[in-house]
Design goal:
homodimer, 368 residues, alpha/beta, 8-stranded parallel beta sheet, two-stranded antiparallel sheet, 13 helices, 10 strands, globular, disordered N terminus
Chain lengths: 368, 368
Amino acid sequence: MTRLATQTAPDEAASKAVTLVDCDIHPVMLPAETSRRLSARWRRHLERYGRRSPHITDTYPRPRNQGMRADAWPEGGVPGSDLALLQHQLLDEHDIDFGILLALHGSDGYDPPELMAELNRAVNDWLVEAWLDRDDRLRASLCVPHDQPALAVAEIERRASDGRFVQVLFPASAQEPLGARKYWPIYEAAAAHGLPVAIHTGGYYAHRGTGWPSFYLEEHAGYGTIMQLALTSLVCEGALAAIPDLKLVLTEGGAAWAAALRWRLDEAWSLLHDETPLLERPPSEYISEQVWFDTQPIEEPDDPAHFMDIIQQADLTDRLMFATDYPHWDFDSPTQTLPRGVPKELREKIFAGTACDLYGLPRTRDAG
Amino acid sequence: MTRLATQTAPDEAASKAVTLVDCDIHPVMLPAETSRRLSARWRRHLERYGRRSPHITDTYPRPRNQGMRADAWPEGGVPGSDLALLQHQLLDEHDIDFGILLALHGSDGYDPPELMAELNRAVNDWLVEAWLDRDDRLRASLCVPHDQPALAVAEIERRASDGRFVQVLFPASAQEPLGARKYWPIYEAAAAHGLPVAIHTGGYYAHRGTGWPSFYLEEHAGYGTIMQLALTSLVCEGALAAIPDLKLVLTEGGAAWAAALRWRLDEAWSLLHDETPLLERPPSEYISEQVWFDTQPIEEPDDPAHFMDIIQQADLTDRLMFATDYPHWDFDSPTQTLPRGVPKELREKIFAGTACDLYGLPRTRDAG
């Protein structure tokens, strides 16, 4: 659907129905931007010592172009750093009504607590000034120093009144398993403000479990496996049960695996529930009620009918949300994301309806 | 089916059709048995220093009775240590035609290389004398010091002529990812002797990936996730492609997850195959041809029809084999393993046919 099509009838020119929400867009802050937003103390620290962990794009193998779409490099910048190019290539090109930004700079790395706090505050300031204030189609994920819960909660409290921050960002692996009691204050603060927690693939420790792979292929196919470890921990440690308003959005980790995981968890719980009194109901019920999934990179069965099987088996009808992963190389265009045979009503939910409900986005917007 | 039923016709008394093979039975060697089979040098070492890693049953949380069936404790021993009780409770009780032993003592722990070699040799000697020589229904998995490939290969060469060792045992996590080139000599030696490699849940490092969980529930539900990491590594590093005669048996890791993993791998490979020239075909083809799965603990969908969906989606028709996991607490009886609605032909394959084909077991045996 092009924007033109919605403008043919004069009455509809003022507003259009929201039909496409992109739930995973990665903006990139250039080092000079970071530096000028830090206090002198931590700017000096970075100049002298650098960061304890290199940025994710330096440590992970990448297929090409630092893992970016070849056409996404603005002149003199890096992909995701230029609003005009992102508007042109993504929002306008695909007529995206709302796009949710996930800046990955803050969650990666294990630097001193106050530096992590300043870095995340700087990223959030930059998200407001360079993106949210300049295009009303954009929303953002709040970056927090996730391994310093007190500082993370302070950042949530500082920003929660800005409704353009629609969720809190968390990496798929951290210093401790994601369900650990340590992180509950962050989840509680997010839930108290009605903010889902988006768990994004990655985190510096993601591969310590098996050692590092030789090929990017393994890392890429492993995103869905790392995400299963994260969700299993969040369920079994009781975080979902203890914080019923906590909502999780699993981004860039696939979704088809959720069916088998639900069965494993329910079967084990049926035998072991005396061990975990926090879990009063079968684990799959918490997943059905409190967990959403982004489509990119959704598993693609050979047989399109299997896609609908999975929707049913994993109870995903109201839980799957479209995402492009722009500007990364494995960008999903809305025309290619879903297989044949997905009913119209479900397509509409995946492309916009479910995200509008979860994030409280309006169902119509200015036709622009 | 009771043994009596097959004996009603006199002509059939001499032999009966093989209808039930149990692919995962855990015998346990008592410490005194281990000690007397070690050389004086390593016996002294164990007395003075113990083992570097405690045995798996000491380090893992367990639901009760050290994770054993409450009725499986022989007088003065531990579950799995007594042939007569195992014959009574398992082989005779369920009329099992063949049972495959997996002794987990050897693969766990990181002690000095020569001690690991002696320990595994002792376990294999004990398997022959205490089990294989005393019941012709039993077969065994060859224990090897998996993180010392040269010593592991020597043990394979020493035992390969004894056809009662039907596979080589490997833990689901080791010092390096399971696909690492380091382990290929073991896989090559197994393949050269026509022995599948059985990857069993566990291994001392299984949870370093996310840190240790608080509850056994998470560990139990995580078996299937750890197994996905192992299989992903074996596929992506090219071990299956480079060693086409290598056959893997994934034990105690479930199977339903294989559908989503196949889709993830094939999708990533379609975009990245120039990175991994060893993988000439979509990864799922290597899995279909070279990977088998044990049923215990098979995922149990709420809707039995979903079980058949998964068989089809993951191409498991000829790849799934029955297992009880005796004497562990989550023992699966043959009457409870499969949901309603599994066709007779498929049931026969799962309960006996596929294992007979893979392990070269006879299709009939003495009615005894």
